[in-house]
Structure to design on (203 residues):
């Protein structure tokens, strides 16, 4: 039996939106992955603010949004553990749970260009061979920096020219707080949770 190839897609997903879904499905096909594993983050060490919705709410929004796609799955690993969530620790824990799978870490080019500030960036590159997605406003990976982490960085990274949809979670939070139309930019299941639980409304 062939080893399963799983793309690990982390993020606050605060809230998840249609851009996340479109990019995840595109990356799955472009990188020939069997599954995308969605990992709603706990507290991100490099972010001072957020998340705004609770971990449970963000996980439920993700699960409601991906339920119709058999190639998508979600884990509560980072939310359950609490505290700052370091990517390498998450990847190691997921690999321990799935010893006979190949894990590939999915990240945007903006995050890749900050990789030197992450914990154990050489292991992220060498062991989890990132799939790096294009992002609007970014010309491409900072290869000199990445090759400073590992000289073979170009051979380890897969570049994917993902759809660049101009949607951002912070924008949607602001729209919801102002009562602007955001419904059709958010998957229906997640939107129901936002409405039922009054998420992101102005105080």
């Amino acid at each position: 039996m062939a080893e399963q190839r799983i793309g690990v897609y982390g993020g606050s997903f605060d809230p998840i939106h249609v851009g996340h879904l479109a990019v995840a499905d595109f990356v799955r096909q472009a990188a020939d992955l069997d599954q995308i594993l969605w990992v709603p983050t706990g507290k991100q060490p490099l972010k001072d603010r957020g998340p705004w919705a609770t971990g449970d709410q963000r996980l439920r929004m993700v699960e409601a949004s991906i339920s119709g796609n058999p190639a998508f799955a979600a884990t509560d690993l980072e939310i359950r553990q609490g505290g700052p969530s370091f990517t390498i620790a998450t990847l190691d824990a997921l690999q321990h749970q799935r010893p006979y799978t190949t894990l590939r870490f999915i990240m945007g080019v903006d995050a890749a260009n900050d990789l030197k500030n992450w914990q154990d960036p050489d292991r992220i590159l060498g062991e989890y061979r990132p799939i790096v997605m294009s992002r609007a406003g970014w010309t491409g990976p900072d290869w000199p920096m990445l090759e400073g982490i590992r000289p073979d960085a170009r051979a380890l990274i897969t570049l994917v020219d993902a759809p660049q949809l101009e949607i951002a979670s912070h924008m949607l939070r602001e729209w919801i707080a102002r009562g602007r139309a955001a419904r059709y930019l958010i998957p229906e299941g997640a939107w129901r949770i936002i409405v039922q639980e009054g998420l992101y409304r102005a105080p």
User: Anything to note?
Assistant: The longest helix spans residues 18-30.
